[in-house]
């Protein structure tokens, strides 16, 4: 099997920061969004994280969870996130 490696122009912390900024700017705190809505909806089309790989999104959201700024819940294919 081949190896997989990531090439990012931003690190995970920076991606988390961009998502948190968008949440603040669009008044999404205390709102539940699906991960699909976060990366594929028209609301995020102008954001750099639009179309983000799901694994990278999970890593960025994990940073926000550790900071107490988000909670991820649901099953793998039906996950949502609530921002604080």
TrEMBL record:
Xref: InterPro entries: ESCRT-II_cplx_Vps25-sub (IPR008570), WH-like_DNA-bd_sf (IPR036388), WH_DNA-bd_sf (IPR036390)
Any Pfam family: ESCRT-II
GO CC terms in record: ESCRT II complex
Gene Ontology BP term (one): protein transport to vacuole involved in ubiquitin-dependent protein catabolic process via the multivesicular body sorting pathway
Molecular function per GO: protein homodimerization activity; structural molecule activity
Keywords of the record: Protein transport, Transport
Lineage: superkingdom: Eukaryota
UniProt similarity note: Belongs to the VPS25 family.
Protein name listed in UniProt: ESCRT-II complex subunit VPS25
Protein source organism: Cadophora malorum
Lineage, highest ranks first: Eukaryota, Fungi, Dikarya, Ascomycota, Pezizomycotina
